[in-house]
Amino acid sequence: MGHVATLGCIHFDTHPVLLFVAPPVEKSAGTNHVADPVLERHPDDGWTLAVPMKVSAGMHRILGKLVDAILPETPRTETTLRDVTRHALVSLQYMPRSSATVFLWTMRALNWSPLWRFRGIRPLTSLPTEAARRHLLAATRSRWLPIRLLMYGPLGLFMSSYFDQDYVHHELRYDPRTFIASRIRVRREWLAGKEPGAAEEIHHRPHGSR
Amino acid sequence: MTILAHRDYRNPEVHEAEIAVVGTGAGGSVVGAELAEAGRDVLFLEEGGYHPTSSFNPYLAESLPRLYRDAGGTIIMGRPPIPYAEGRCVGGGTVVNGGMAWRPPEEVLDAWEALTGQPDLGPRSMEPLLDRVEARIHAKPQHPASIGDDSRLLEEGARRMGWRYEHNPRAQDRCVGSNQCITGCPTGAKQSTLLGYMPRALSAGARCMTEVRAHQLWIEHGRCVGVLGKAINPSSREEDIDVRVRAKAVVVACGAIQTPFLLLRHRLGRPSRQLGKNFLCHPNTKVVAVYPTDLYAWQGVSQGGQIREFREEGILMAENAVPPGTAAAQIPFLGQEALDLMKRYNAMAMTGVLVEDSHAGTVTRSFGAPMARYSITRYDHERFLRGVRYLATLHFEMGAEKVILPFSNFHVAESVDDLRHIERTQRSRSTIELFTVHMMGTCRMGSRPERSVVNLDGELWDLPGCYVADASLFPTAVGVNPQVTIMALATRVAQRLRTPN
What we know:
The complex is a heterodimer.
Chain A: H1 18-21, H2 57-70, H3 80-93, H4 97-111, H5 113-116, H6 129-140, H7 145-162, H8 166-172, H9 176-191
Helix pairs in contact in A: 2-3, 2-4, 2-6, 3-7, 4-7
Chain B: E1 2-4, E2 14-22, H1 28-37, E3 42-45, H2 60-67, E4 74-76, E5 82-84, H3 93-96, H4 106-116, H5 123-137, E6 139-140, H6 149-161, E7 165-167, E8 170-171, H7 197-203, E9 207-209, E10 212-220, E11 223-232, E12 239-252, H8 255-264, E13 284-290, E14 305-307, E15 315-319, H9 324-329, H10 335-342, E16 348-355, E17 362-366, E18 369-373, H11 378-397, E19 402-407, E20 410-413, H12 421-425, E21 466-468, H13 483-498
Parallel strand pairs in B: 1-9, 2-3, 2-12, 3-9, 12-21
Antiparallel strand pairs in B: 4-5, 6-8, 7-14, 10-11, 11-12, 13-16, 13-19, 14-15, 15-16, 17-18, 19-20
Helix pairs in contact in B: 1-7, 1-13, 5-13
């Protein structure tokens, strides 16, 4: 056996109980805030997120237009389009080269959808966002499977990234962190011997309601 | 305990072990743990990274590249195309699955026994293996405190419809229903192999090399003597360091798509020509109901139970709440229209129909990547339409305002009367939207080399020293969530490997 090392920054969970005695993870440097031991967006477990795939300026423009057309206009921040595009380019790094290449050619094909739909001669990058959205919606709902297939990738990547942002969660009244933290407390008490009772049950809907 | 990552590898190096196990999911980790505990020197190779429970968070956009193959962007080509999800991390699919722990139905094991002509895969032989697995993963039904309103709603709906509803046994220890199964359980309750089998293996002296992709088997004089791979730079994703592992036996447990992909490189499976064939995937589809009041389906366990009334027809139905990012990617709306619908996210009951395969597809190699092909049959299509109608009817019976249907040309039913249009609009198999997580069957196990890829010990007929231990072993579809069956078969492979011949 050659070089062997044990990653010092890793807390291996030999038993679930250890999860709760693991030291809290320090948040980004420069703040004194100490976060919960779980639920951080970029937890420090010694793992590195890949750098975004390098693409041409033209492809950046195409991705930017598609992201703009697919996502809701609000809520957004100044960096929404950039963040979602970046997420897509990072995700491509995790795919086989052939799949990433196909995805990028798909983006080019969608950019020229007005042409092959016989609805215009200008690409989406030259159209207003609302017009671009109409073309993409038509592709999403096309009766032809190969055309619908073109939208699988961008819908999956862009929507999953956008609807994963805290400000969008807020709009949806979706707050998983608070809920999970409360359930961790319930489990912690359970591990200490207090089995959950009626007070810990999850009820929102009136019983028997229609 | 030794876990290595890209930064620990040097060029050139040969790592030695008695048994090399490729993959750490439901198959690989079980084989490795059983062998390590029996005193064998085990070395795991895992393409993904090691992510402890304390790093799990509810953010999908981050969890996808961390925990899933191709950041979740994988698809089976066919009519219709079927996106699929596969784990890629230490623990594999068990880290991101729902944790369901159903035993294979007795009639399926009877069929396997009849198909192989040997008792090894029959109910009596499998019983002790299943007992052992269930004990190790703490398979049991949920505590009432972990059940959410969507599960209760489905159970009540099934009761009103007069259908059989059964609570899921799940691999969990004091699950409190945080509903984050698919992004990694942040409470440590789900007993994935990350928390169960892998710590056992590592405590017994096994080593785990993460961020290594196995590219080919090391074959000398017609025998498998190791694995050749490349370490993946986590930042650039370049495969920049050669990794060679020499071992007396190699266990391939990369799942029903990646395992044949690796083996096909060597043109194995010649006696039967079955390698990569018999690809099964339990396709399923989503039916999302919007209710007048909020259900908060994201609170409470994912899939507290299943409607099993139609299991004999190969139809299962269950609730399965997914994060907004996943839900939004599956709705046929863009822009503000998508947001308007997603604002009702808390009022949504996300349910699905699973159909047991009636035929099989294939896995081949294409441009350096695996290509899975699978099309549903007319019989499958008819069962999907029936299942969607059943579920939508249940939702309307329970008071749903509308039901979002999984058809590209018929999106929303506003009332139970609208469901009549399903027959008229759904004549083509291409318009239904499917998804899957249960890939099986591409290296079928058997007792005759002309009909199977591996023997009943899990060893390839035409490559001594190379074993398979994952869902690709299944001779037919199992008809239920496959985790426990995979683990039981992996335990069998380990027991055979433990006895040197």
